[in-house]
């Protein structure tokens, strides 16, 4: 009788089976996420149960949370997945929630001393925090504070370098939070981008200027086309003046040698009698004659360029901890691109914005000056944040900041460098 009823109402039966299957899969996913959270909290509690001397204060961690990241879901993601781990670890956690764009830069100027800085958001939040940090008058001291990154935004470029790939968002967030507690860090390069009048802006990924970036910004307008929205945005942008060329002048300096790392442990202070002897000897000895040092002129290279897109990127995506030179990658793409190539390559650049396709001119530089013709319109993309296009000077600050990373990723970097 039941089978006969199901056969007579096969449409309702099919709909009910699909609904039950989807509901069961959803509940199973929620259960797996709760298991991941529980395991991460148990691991964090092991850090919190460690004994510390009574004279040692708790470590202070300042979290800069952007609630608007990930279409407004960042606050809920942080409170459910990352906040319990941080509180169980024994850290003195202070959460600072930003209310508007640019607020993090102002808050960093007023921030007091802290032991850890944690950025919870996406690329835009990272760019704001490091810009506010490096604009401080005492940036030499604050830049030594280790920084943690909890990927909560729509675009989280740094997470590919710092943490293993994961298709599960909960696992990705909990792994990133646990990596902060484990304490392994890697040095990352920073780009200082300065206009003629504006304060400098700092970036850990790079700068983009060109047609692919302009088309990528408009992809969200074609949301109704589903998976075809990326190709549609690039296709409709070809209806403008074609070929799309960007004229500029570029001056740059070559790579610089990497100095040896300074030892973390300070040398022990010599005894008192040794210090007194040195001071007396310096006082009574004749002052040394100053030998004038010859200043070698900087060897600037100059280049006139016509390109469809220019990108200046750090080496943080392909981090090499043992390289002997410091440089940034400048990619000048040829402007002789067909419309079909433009559409296909635009889709690839949405996945890897700083890819340098075949036929492009690649330059390694430690510093460059980009001069734009008067009346140039458009925008720069600096760490996926939009800025008005203007003449800028880009300077590489090698190994400026230290970010927490997963110990497995650090081992992979060292292993790849040995091979």
UniProtKB/TrEMBL annotation:
Obligatory cofactor(s): Mg(2+)
Top EC class, one word: transferase
GO biological process: ceramide biosynthetic process; glycerolipid metabolic process; sphingosine biosynthetic process
E.C. code: 2.7.1.107, 2.7.1.138, 2.7.1.94
Any one Pfam family match given in the protein's UniProt record, by short name: DAGK_cat
Membrane association type: Peripheral membrane protein
Pathway(s) per entry: Glycerolipid metabolism; Lipid metabolism; glycerolipid metabolism
UniProt keyword annotation of Mitochondrion present: yes
Subcellular location: Mitochondrion inner membrane; Mitochondrion intermembrane space
Taxonomic superkingdom: Eukaryota
A cellular component term, taken from the record's GO annotations: mitochondrial inner membrane
Positions of transmembrane segments: none
Principal location listed in the UniProt entry: mitochondrion
Reactions this protein catalyses: N-(hexanoyl)sphing-4-enine + ATP = N-hexanoylsphing-4-enine 1-phosphate + ADP + H(+); 1-hexadecanoyl-sn-glycerol + ATP = 1-hexadecanoyl-sn-glycero-3-phosphate + ADP + H(+); 1-(5Z,8Z,11Z,14Z-eicosatetraenoyl)-sn-glycerol + ATP = 1-(5Z,8Z,11Z,14Z-eicosatetraenoyl)-sn-glycero-3-phosphate + ADP + H(+); 1-(9Z-octadecenoyl)-sn-glycerol + ATP = 1-(9Z-octadecenoyl)-sn-glycero-3-phosphate + ADP + H(+)
Record domain DAGKc: where: 56-197
PROSITE patterns the UniProt entry points to: DAGK
Keywords: ATP-binding, Kinase, Lipid metabolism, Membrane, Mitochondrion, Mitochondrion inner membrane, Nucleotide-binding, Transferase
One term of GO molecular function: ATP binding
Family: Belongs to the AGK family.
Protein name as annotated: Acylglycerol kinase, mitochondrial
Organism: Aramus guarauna
Taxonomic placement: Eukaryota, Metazoa, Chordata, Craniata, Vertebrata
């Amino acid at each position: 009788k039941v089978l006969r009823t199901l056969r007579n109402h096969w449409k309702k039966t099919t709909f009910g089976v699909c609904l039950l299957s989807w509901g069961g899969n959803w509940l199973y996913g929620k259960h797996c996420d709760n298991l991941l959270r529980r395991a991460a909290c148990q691991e964090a509690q092991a850090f919190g149960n460690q004994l510390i001397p009574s004279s040692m204060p708790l470590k202070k961690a300042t979290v800069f949370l952007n609630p608007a990241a990930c279409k407004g879901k960042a606050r809920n993601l942080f409170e459910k997945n990352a906040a319990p781990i941080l509180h169980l670890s024994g850290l003195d956690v202070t959460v600072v929630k930003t209310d508007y764009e640019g607020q993090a830069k102002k808050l960093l100027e007023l921030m007091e001393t802290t032991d850890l800085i944690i950025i919870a958001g996406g690329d835009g939040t990272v760019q704001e925090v490091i810009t506010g940090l490096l604009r401080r008058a005492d940036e030499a001291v604050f830049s030594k504070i280790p920084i943690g990154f909890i990927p909560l935004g729509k675009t989280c470029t740094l997470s590919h370098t710092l943490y293993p790939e994961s298709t599960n968002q909960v696992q990705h967030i909990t792994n990133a939070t646990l990596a902060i507690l484990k304490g392994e860090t890697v040095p990352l390069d920073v780009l200082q981008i300065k206009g003629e009048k504006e304060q400098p802006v700092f970036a850990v990924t790079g700068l983009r200027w060109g047609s692919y970036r302009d088309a990528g910004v408009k992809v969200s307008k074609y949301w109704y086309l589903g998976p075809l929205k990326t190709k549609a945005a690039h296709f409709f942008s070809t209806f403008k003046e074609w070929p799309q060329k960007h004229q500029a002048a570029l001056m740059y300096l070559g790579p610089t040698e990497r100095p040896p790392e300074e030892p973390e442990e300070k040398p022990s202070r010599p005894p008192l009698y040794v210090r007194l002897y040195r001071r007396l000897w310096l006082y009574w000895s004749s002052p040394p004659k100053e030998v004038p040092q010859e200043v070698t002129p900087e060897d600037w290279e100059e280049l006139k360029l016509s390109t469809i897109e220019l990108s200046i990127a750090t080496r943080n995506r392909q981090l090499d901890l043992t390289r002997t030179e410091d440089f940034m990658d400048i990619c000048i793409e040829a402007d002789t691109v067909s419309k079909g190539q433009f559409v296909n390559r635009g889709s690839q650049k949405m996945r890897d914005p700083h890819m340098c396709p075949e036929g492009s001119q690649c330059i390694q530089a430690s510093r460059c000056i980009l001069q734009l013709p008067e009346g140039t319109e458009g925008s720069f993309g600096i760490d996926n944040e939009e800025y008005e296009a203007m003449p800028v000077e880009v300077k590489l600050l090698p190994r400026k900041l230290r970010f927490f990373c997963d110990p497995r990723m650090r081992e992979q970097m060292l292993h790849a460098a040995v091979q």
